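re: ur question from yesterday

yeah so i grabbed the chain u mentioned. its 378 aa long if i counted rite. heres the sequnce exactly as i have it in my notes:
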Amino acid sequence: MLEADVLSALIGDVYDAALNPDLWPSALRQAAEFIGGSAAALYSKDTTSKRGAVYFEDGGIAPQYKQLYFDKYITLDPSTTAQYLAKVGEPFGTGDVMSYDEFLHSRFYQEWVKPQQLVDCINVVLDKSATSIAIFGVFRDTRHGVVDDESRRRMRLIVPHIRRAVLIGRVVDLQTAEAATFADTFDSIAAGMFLVDGSGRIVHANAAGHALLAAGEILRAAGDRLAASDAQADRTLLDIFAAAGSGDAEIGTKGIAVPLSARDGEHHVAHVLPLTSGARRRGGKVYAAVAAIFVHKAALTTPSPPEVIAKTFSLTASELRVLLAIVNVGGVPETAAALGIAETTVKFHLRRLFEKTGARRQADLVKLVAGFGNPFAG
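ran it thru and got these structure tokens back, copy pasting raw so excuse formatting
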């Protein structure tokens, strides 16, 4: 099959999974094959407890290794620190975090990666807050090799759609959405929901959606068209509705999270789900709709303390990793053992940390991190 055909089918399955979580394993399996990998997963990491959880996976990682990762190796994985600094939606591999030769000598590689015949993982941060990071990852084994330009290109083609599906899944929180009763299914959710045609004409709105229209602060009905109060957001929505009518792939990065502002300063966000293919197509045809729009209040976005520290002092992922280990574990030998790297490597990064932060001793670094952490306490 042509790449465009494979991608189109994959995107359709990803959007169907947004409304029916049971479809995620199959969609992730297809995503791994498309990008080039032996396994794929949607998972999260808690930035405070250093724990994590898998939301959906394709079964490519054995259960014992999955459990072992979260029990023991999550802090040894260099991507854990890199995810603080990663730009949302931009793929990265091990080589973007540290030298691959250094990675091969790490405990994480020797004890967790190598026994599974894995060699790398291409990760993308889908969403992040002060306390958690949501990630999509595709694991690459010896057949696929390390992350390369082709895997990055293919990851960029699918990531906007996966991110949109994950965010919509959070808002909708349904086990399944029967296409024949699409509008009835969505009437019960707390978020505002609208079904629109290609011109933005409202063909259905749930109770929360009608309340938003009645208030007129965020959204309004311009005749029978759904319109945003903010002019720029309104133009964006019109472009998205037109694109949605041309198919799932056409919507691309548009409408993943459209910011909507009210005159009183209150902020909402809109997610747009196309309805022109897959299991969603039947529901869209019943109501002559090309897209479903979900609108909810925007959560306050606060960067995590490690992210703030890294940006303040222009730290690399490796420097931030060593800094946090020095604070949480102790001296050079202990940090080297905890991270599974050489003491000389720790000392090199430590010298760079002293230069960038102005600290003179390890104790000063501990105080520095504590100073950034206190405002976020509680």
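noticed a couple things. The first strand starts at residue 39 and ends at 46. also Residues 174-180, 374-378 have pLDDT under 50 and may be disordered.
anyway ttyl
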